Amino acid sequence: MVTLLVNTLESPWARLKPIPIENVKIMDQFWAPRLKTLREETLPSQYNLMEETGRIDNFRRAAGKIKGPFRGAYYNDSDVYKWVEAACLTLAYERDQKIATLLTNVIDEIVAAQDEDGYLNTYFTYEKKRLRWTNLRDMHELYCAGHLFQAAIAYHRSTGEKELLTTAVRFADHIASVFGPGKRRGTPGHPEIEMALVELYRETRKEEYLELAQFFLDQRGYGLIGGSIVLIDHKPFRQLDEIVGHAVRAIYLCCGATDIFMETGERELYETLEKLWKNMVYKRMYVTGGVGSRHAGEAFGDDYELPNRRAYSETCASVANVMWNWRMLLATGESRFTDIMELALYNAALAGISLNGREYFYVNPLADRGRHRRQRWFGCACCPPNIARLLASVPGMIYSTSDNAIWVHLYVASVARIELKGNEVRITQETEYPWDGRIDVTVEPSKDDEFSLYLRIPGWCRAATVNVNGRKVRKSVKPSNYLEISRVWGTGDRVEIELDMPVTLLKSHPYVLNNNYRVAIKRGPVVYCLEQADNPEYDVWNIAIVPETKFTATYEPELLGGVVVIEGNGIGLDISAWNNKLYAEMDEVQVKAIPVKFKAVPYYAWANRSPGPMIVWIQALGFNTLQGGKKLYKA
Amino acid sequence: MVTLLVNTLESPWARLKPIPIENVKIMDQFWAPRLKTLREETLPSQYNLMEETGRIDNFRRAAGKIKGPFRGAYYNDSDVYKWVEAACLTLAYERDQKIATLLTNVIDEIVAAQDEDGYLNTYFTYEKKRLRWTNLRDMHELYCAGHLFQAAIAYHRSTGEKELLTTAVRFADHIASVFGPGKRRGTPGHPEIEMALVELYRETRKEEYLELAQFFLDQRGYGLIGGSIVLIDHKPFRQLDEIVGHAVRAIYLCCGATDIFMETGERELYETLEKLWKNMVYKRMYVTGGVGSRHAGEAFGDDYELPNRRAYSETCASVANVMWNWRMLLATGESRFTDIMELALYNAALAGISLNGREYFYVNPLADRGRHRRQRWFGCACCPPNIARLLASVPGMIYSTSDNAIWVHLYVASVARIELKGNEVRITQETEYPWDGRIDVTVEPSKDDEFSLYLRIPGWCRAATVNVNGRKVRKSVKPSNYLEISRVWGTGDRVEIELDMPVTLLKSHPYVLNNNYRVAIKRGPVVYCLEQADNPEYDVWNIAIVPETKFTATYEPELLGGVVVIEGNGIGLDISAWNNKLYAEMDEVQVKAIPVKFKAVPYYAWANRSPGPMIVWIQALGFNTLQGGKKLYKA
Question: ipTM more than 0.85?
Answer without folding.
Answer: yes
